[in-house]
Write a sequence for this structure.
């Protein structure tokens, strides 16, 4: 065998079409199918472990994990459908058991489930039988099986009751059944007609409750097998009566209900958790429902959506994905979902978006995967990058060292081929219209050159990167990577070229095609160096050895061919499996091939005629491309299933291969100048923003520190006080404890004494009882001895009688034996006499026989001659008959073949008859059970009818009472309406009065404030005038004294100087110059002071208005009470009028003779209620007039004060200023 093996290292993709295709193993690990493997993926550490599928299987159909998360069941399709159970606790996930349908032919199992204790497993077989199997899987024993549906109604899901191993739920198109395992069989426990509903999924919420989702977006809740209520995933729950049952619904209602929500989203997946359940609600949407306290209903609390894909040309396409499976982690922290386009999404249920109530969105669990056939695969030399393209219009760049998706971009057209430049900075992609050369930027793939090569199915860069080859049908174009010139056009293939490969030195190019030709081209002069043509084989893959001497090709004839010098040296058969692609390592020591069934083979090299290879389970579709990395460390394969597998190439001891030289991968990337400048600008803006945020945060931190220090001081003082109070409480409690200990000791002493006395009394009584019991024991022992002796005597007597009976029987049978011996002697004598008589008769018969034989011989000799003559005649006839016989034999053989066919059909029909008989028996059982249920329901209907009759009687009585009460209520309601209208009118008038009052109060307060301010200014000005007048008087007296020295100039001069020094200071000269500016500033200061006073007064006014409003409310309440009194008086008035009318009718007195005193007495009562309202209006009018007069007076006063203030604020005239004294 080959010394080199491949080990599955990492895988990108998800296999679609598998039921329940994702499940949690633990909080960090999920399990999902990919290719023909099950992957255990650790979300945090990003490692993978693999469980390979079985050989010759046609693919996985369903997954199921046990409740204890130890076992994984995998259903696989094949000639015989199987279920394989793996032990996940084993490091390599060891295979435990393989289950099948036994004698029942089963192609596949479409759904599975483990029991709550993980000991049992159910599996739903597919069409046409749709049989449900119930296994004790550890013993591979089928406990029971049952046919769940007909051929036209497929089953979508089966599940166990989470609390009961024996109850099973089955749902499908028009099918919702509950089965219970009892007495070695599965029996249906509910009978509902739900042909109009297509149940796509269901989940158990409790031991009795199941929620099922339908194709029309409805959620149906079943309890104990009966439909309780239903709701839509797009609206709030619509509850129904608890005893509603589906059998009572009319067919028309069922049809209308089924037709109305036809446009509703499909509930394709549903799962339960402790708070409620999660279900899909159409494309790209998952809804969370939580249980409410009232009536055990559920309400929708959150919608989670798949976000738009920014890398796509149509971002909304990602939102149109249909959910296939929903799974919640064991701690209920994370929700994971898989879609019909092979993507995995997750969301943390305790995330910020979920808690804030914002729109929540899923995130990729690991990366975005391809959702269609991968058509191209390529690697480079300078970077650990992988490029893939697919029919899903996308190109993806992967990193096989870090196992991450580096770049992803979608285009308008399908991508057929891809090629990475050896530097890892450029990429070629072949589309239906053009071949595009693109730059791999840091976050984008941008086109910078297009070539007119339509539908390019293959393109490859040379190892030096200076050229690339592109295929267009049966032509091969070679372009320069630097000048982009078309250097060569290689013509020679008659069919489409399927694969091309460069030699190590780029001097040769090998191509193969559908025409069965393998050509080797010289890339310098475009000449064909060698060729090998085999028209019976369409080649699909080709590779070349490092020395460029040997070519390996694979095709549709299921062989691997080694070609040298235009000759096929060896052909290795592939066991009826077609090879699709082939790859050889750079060292020339390894050869790998991919097959049409998705497996990968490591083939021993040099090739041998024997089948010497190792086969690995890889993909679920044909391998489309295969590449080995430049350092021979990894093998890369892609397939029609949309998966990319990375294989680690190792030796048999599990060690990696030695590299010829260590390759250091480049870290450089391409980025455009505009992008770099934009990013630098953004970085500068972000840096400035960060600095601002730092300053702001430091300021906020200082404020918080101050606040917290104050709080700490307050808390420390508070806690010190509490500690002191607790210390005092502790002292008090210690004192109480000591007191209680003393009291408890006294009580304990008393209790101990009491118990000791009771113990002594109990011991004495128990001793007496023991003595009595001992005496009884002695008596019983004597009785037992006497009984034993009596029984022994009886036994002895029975043995004596037995011996006597035996002696009598032996004597009887001995006498009989002697009689029989005498009879035997007589019979022997008779038999000897008969023998002698027989021998004499024998002799006579022999003599007679000899004579008869002689006569017969003569007779038959005559007949023999006659027969010989007849025989000669018949020989001629037999020749004719032989021919007829051969023709008849052919007819018989044909008839036997037909008989055999009929026998096979008969066996099939018998099998069908048996299955139908089983169905008949099952249906009879169903009919019996339904009859029983019908009887129970008829009894219930009879009871309900009785209750209904009683309730109708009660209803009749209540209706009569209601009519009587309505008659009594009508006049009162009319009165209430009249009173309400009056109250509304009065309230309107009252509101208008309140508005007037508040406006007047505001005007008054403003005027009062202005008046106060003018009063203050007036007092200040009068004081200032008084001070100036006193100063002038003092100056006049001093000047008069100076005039006395008019005759003495010297003294006059000294006195004048003293006068100047006394009355005029240096600052006064400057103040006089700037007096106008000071007056202006003083005016503005006073104005600001007044504005502040006005603001404070407005606040007071708001408080006063609130007080007035409360007063008005009180007045309104008083008015309401007065209105009530008025209404009462009016009712009294009506009563009095009716009484007066009665009196008049009785006495026959006319209305004109009624005295005026009586009329005034009656009308005074009616007018009493109006006095309050008239007096109130007159009082309000009077108050308003007084306030108007007061406002007019205040306005006049304000005008006078304003004029006086203006006069006082004017600057003094220049005549009052003193001249500057000059020496």
């Amino acid at each position: 065998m080959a010394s080199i093996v491949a080990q599955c290292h990492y895988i990108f993709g998800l296999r679609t079409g598998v039921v329940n295709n994702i499940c949690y193993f633990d909080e960090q690990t999920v399990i999902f199918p990919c290719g023909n493997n099950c992957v255990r993926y650790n979300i945090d550490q990003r490692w993978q472990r693999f469980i390979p599928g079985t050989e010759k299987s046609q693919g996985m159909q369903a997954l199921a994990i046990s409740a204890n998360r130890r076992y994984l069941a995998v259903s696989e399709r094949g000639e015989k459908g199987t279920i394989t159970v793996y032990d996940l606790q084993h490091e390599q996930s060891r295979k435990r058991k393989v289950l099948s349908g036994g004698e029942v032919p089963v192609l596949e199992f479409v759904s599975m489930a483990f029991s709550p204790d993980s000991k049992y497993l159910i599996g739903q077989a597919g069409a046409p039988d749709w049989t449900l199997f119930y296994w004790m899987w550890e013993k591979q024993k089928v406990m029971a099986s049952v046919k769940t549906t007909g051929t036209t109604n497929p089953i979508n899901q089966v599940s166990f009751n989470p609390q009961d191993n024996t109850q099973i739920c089955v749902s499908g198109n028009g099918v919702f059944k509950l089965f219970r395992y009892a007495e070695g069989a599965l029996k249906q426990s509910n009978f509902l007609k739900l042909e109009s509903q297509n149940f796509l999924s269901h989940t158990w919420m409790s031991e009795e409750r199941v929620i099922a989702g339908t194709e029309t977006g409805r959620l149906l809740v079943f309890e104990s097998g009966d439909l309780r209520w239903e709701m839509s995933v797009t609206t709030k729950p619509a509850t129904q009566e608890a005893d509603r049952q589906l059998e009572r619904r009319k067919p028309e209602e069922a049809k209308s209900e089924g037709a109305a929500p036809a446009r509703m989203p499909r509930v394709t997946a549903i799962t339960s958790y402790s708070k409620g359940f999660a279900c899909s609600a159409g494309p790209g949407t998952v809804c969370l429902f939580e249980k409410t306290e009232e009536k055990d209903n559920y309400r929708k609390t959150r919608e989670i959506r798949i976000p738009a894909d920014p890398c796509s040309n149509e971002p909304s396409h990602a939102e149109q994905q249909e959910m296939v499976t929903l799974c919640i982690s064991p701690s209920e922290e994370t929700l994971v979902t898989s879609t019909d386009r092979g993507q995995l999404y997750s969301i943390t249920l305790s995330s910020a978006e979920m808690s804030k109530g914002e729109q929540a969105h899923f995130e990729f669990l690991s990366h975005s995967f391809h959702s269609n056939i991968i058509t191209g695969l390529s690697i480079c030399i300078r970077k650990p990058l992988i490029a893939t393209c697919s029919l899903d219009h996308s190109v993806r760049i992967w990193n096989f060292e870090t196992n991450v998706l580096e770049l992803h971009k979608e285009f308008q057209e399908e991508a057929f081929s891809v090629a990475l430049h050896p530097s890892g900075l450029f990429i070629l992609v072949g589309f239906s219209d053009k071949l595009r050369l693109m730059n791999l930027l840091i976050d984008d793939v941008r086109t910078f050159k297009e070539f007119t090569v339509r539908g390019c199915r293959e393109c490859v860069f040379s190892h030096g990167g200076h050229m690339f080859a592109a295929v267009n049908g049966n032509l091969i174009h070679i372009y320069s990577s630097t000048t982009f010139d078309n250097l060569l056009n290689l013509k020679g293939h008659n069919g489409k070229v399927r694969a091309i490969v460069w030699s190590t030195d780029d001097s040769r190019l090998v191509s193969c095609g559908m025409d069965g030709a393998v050509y080797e081209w010289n890339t310098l002069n475009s000449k064909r160096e060698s060729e090998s043509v085999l028209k019976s084989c369409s080649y699909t893959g080709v590779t070349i050895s490092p020395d460029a001497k040997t070519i390996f090709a694979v095709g549709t004839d299921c062989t691997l061919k080694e070609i040298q010098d235009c000759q096929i040296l060896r052909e290795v058969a592939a066991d009826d499996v077609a090879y699709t692609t082939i790859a050889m390592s750079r060292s020339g020591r390894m050869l790998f091939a991919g097959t049409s069934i998705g497996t990968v083979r490591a083939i021993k090299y040099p090739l041998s005629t024997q089948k010497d290879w190792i086969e690995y389970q890889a993909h679920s579709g044909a391998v489309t491309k295969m590449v080995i990395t430049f350092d021979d460390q990894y093998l890369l394969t892609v397939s029609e299933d949309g998966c990319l597998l990375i294989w680690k190439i190792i030796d048999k001891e599990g060690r990696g291969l030695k590299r010829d030289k260590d390759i250091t991968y480049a870290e450089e990337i391409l980025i455009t100048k505009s992008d770099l400048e934009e990013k630098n600008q953004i970085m500068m803006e972000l840096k400035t923003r960060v600095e601002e945020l730092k300053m702001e945060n430091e300021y906020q931190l200082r404020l918080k520190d101050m606040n917290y220090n104050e709080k700490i001081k307050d808390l420390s003082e508070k806690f010190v006080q509490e500690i002191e109070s607790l210390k005092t409480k502790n002292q008090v409690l210690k004192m109480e404890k000591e007191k209680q200990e003393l009291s408890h000791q006294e009580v304990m002493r008393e209790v101990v004494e009491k118990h000791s006395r009771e113990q002594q009394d109990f011991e004495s009584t128990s001793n007496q009882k023991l003595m009595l019991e001992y005496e009884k024991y002695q008596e019983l022992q004597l009785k037992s001895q006497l009984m034993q002796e009596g029984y022994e005597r009886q036994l002895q007597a029975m043995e004596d009688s037995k011996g006597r009976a035996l002696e009598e029987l032996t004597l009887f049978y001995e006498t009989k034996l002697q009689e029989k011996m005498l009879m035997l002697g007589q019979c022997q004598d008779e038999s000897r006499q008969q023998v002698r008589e027989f021998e004499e008769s024998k002799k006579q018969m022999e003599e007679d026989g000899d004579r008869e034989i002689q006569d017969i011989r003569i007779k038959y000799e005559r007949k023999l001659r006659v027969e010989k003559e007849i025989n000669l005649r018949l020989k001629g006839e037999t020749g004719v008959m032989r021919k007829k016989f051969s023709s008849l034999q052919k007819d018989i053989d044909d008839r036997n073949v037909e008989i055999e066919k009929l026998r096979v059909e008969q066996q099939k029909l018998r099998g069908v008859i048996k299955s139908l008989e089983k169905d008949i028996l099952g249906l009879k059982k169903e009919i019996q059970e339904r009859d029983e249920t019908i009887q129970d329901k008829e009894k219930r209907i009879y009871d309900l009818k009785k209750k209904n009759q009683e309730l109708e009687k009660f209803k009749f009585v209540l209706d009569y009472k209601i009519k009587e009460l309505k008659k009594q209520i009508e006049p009162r309601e009319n009165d209430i309406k009249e009173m309400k209208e009056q109250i509304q009118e009065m309230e309107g008038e009252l509101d208008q009065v309140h508005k007037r009052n508040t406006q007047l109060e505001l005007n008054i307060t403003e005027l009062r404030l202005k008046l106060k301010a003018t009063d203050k200014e007036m007092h200040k000005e009068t004081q200032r005038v008084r001070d100036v007048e006193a100063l002038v008087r003092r100056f006049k007296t001093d000047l008069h004294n100076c005039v006395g020295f008019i005759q003495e100039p010297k003294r006059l001069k000294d006195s004048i100087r003293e006068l100047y020094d006394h009355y005029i200071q240096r600052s006064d000269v400057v103040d006089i110059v700037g007096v106008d500016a000071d007056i202006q500033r003083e005016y503005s200061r006073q104005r600001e002071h007044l504005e502040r006073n006005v603001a404070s007064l407005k606040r007071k006014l708001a408080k006063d208005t609130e007080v007035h409003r409360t007063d008005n409310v009180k007045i309104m309440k008083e008015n309401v009470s007065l209105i009530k009194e008025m209404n009462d008086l009016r009712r009294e008035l009506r009563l009095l009028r009716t009484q007066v009318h009665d009196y008049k009718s009785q006495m026959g007195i006319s209305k004109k003779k009624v005295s005026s005193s009586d009329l005034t007495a009656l009308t005074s009562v009616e007018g009493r209620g109006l006095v309050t309202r008239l007096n109130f209006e007159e009082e309000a009018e009077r108050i308003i007039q007084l306030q108007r007069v007061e406002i007019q007076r205040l306005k006049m006063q304000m005008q006078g004060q304003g004029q006086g203030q203006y006069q006082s604020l004017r600057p003094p005239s220049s005549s009052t200023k003193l001249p500057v004294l000059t020496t």
The domain at 490-524+532-573 is CATH 2.40.10 (Thrombin, subunit H). The CA atoms of residues 744 and 969 lie 72 Å apart. The longest helix spans residues 673-1043.
